[in-house]
Amino acid sequence: MEDRLFRNAMGSFSTGVTVIVTETNEGTHGMTANAFMSQSLEPRLIIISLKEDAHMLNKINESGFFSVNILSEEQQDLSMIFAGQVKSAKKVEFDYLDGKPVISGAIAQITCTVKSEYVEGDHTIFIGHVTEVHLEGGEPLIFSKGKYRRLEKAGVTANSD
């Protein structure tokens, strides 16, 4: 099977867009990722997956913590900045939740300590123990088939027979 066929098939699955953030002695670091999911309610665990050559991998190993920031539909510019798709002259400001850096205005901010990690294929899977959550209003930024998308509000009508 060709790599492009596999990538296109995986890209058919629409996801939210997150920015993973951590902090080391060298400063605050972030990267855009859509490989994120909840794993367990008790205990509260989430999963992120990072490619083996991602700079963020060493940063999380150094810090032992990270935050997952689910971006709003108004934050596409931040997604592109942290994905390295655009350079920005503006400095990204971070808030703090539970002593960990988070993206201001994200519709959900989830802070975690690293519980465990597993190397599988060309990625490292981090299991994060959730330490705090903050929610904001707004609609999520969506990524599907290589493009940013927005949710369309569906009208629901009741059939009155």
Automatic annotation (TrEMBL):
Residue ranges of every copy of the Flavin reductase like domain listed in the record: 10-150
Gene Ontology MF terms in the entry: FMN binding; riboflavin reductase (NADPH) activity
InterPro entries the UniProt entry points to: Flavin_Rdtase-like_dom (IPR002563), NADH-dep_flavin_reductase (IPR050268), Split_barrel_FMN-bd (IPR012349)
SMART domains attached to this UniProt entry: Flavin_Reduct
Keywords, comma-separated and alphabetical: Oxidoreductase
GO biological process, one term: pyrimidine nucleobase catabolic process
A Pfam family assignment: Flavin_Reduct
PANTHER family from the UniProt entry: FLAVIN REDUCTASE, FMN REDUCTASE (NADH) RUTF
This protein's name: Flavin reductase family protein
Taxonomic source organism: Psychrobacillus soli
